[in-house]
Inverse folding.
């Protein structure tokens, strides 16, 4: 079970439906006229960014979690079963979206855009 820790407590969704992350490859390739091989500037890849999709049992739980994510703060997600999702992050570069699940019409989803940060 995933737990998201914030400045005043935790958010525990019923389930993490999705976790999609990208990392920018930041090395640069400089094409040089008259040469077959380019010059290369090696740089480390950037940190992860993407979207968390969380499932909640009630609209009240989803709305309360959305209110937490709307506060400017650093959060931490951990999951003992899926260690790869563990990170410190901020909510950035997108919209916080609360939605009634169209299939069940009882459960609620919450999409949260994230940017990983160093703890």
């Amino acid at each position: 079970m995933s737990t998201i820790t914030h400045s005043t407590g935790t958010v525990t969704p019923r389930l993490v439906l999705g976790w999609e992350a990208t990392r920018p490859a930041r090395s640069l390739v400089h094409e040089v006229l008259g040469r077959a091989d380019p010059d290369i500037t090696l740089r480390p890849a950037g940190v992860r960014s993407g979207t968390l999709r969380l499932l909640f049992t009630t609209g009240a739980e989803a709305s309360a979690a959305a209110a937490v994510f709307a506060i400017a703060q650093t959060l931490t997600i951990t999951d003992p079963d899926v260690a790869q999702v563990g990170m410190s992050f901020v909510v950035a570069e997108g919209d916080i979206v609360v939605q009634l699940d169209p299939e069940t019409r009882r459960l609620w989803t919450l999409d949260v855009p994230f940017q990983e940060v160093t703890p």
Summary: The first strand starts at residue 3 and ends at 6.
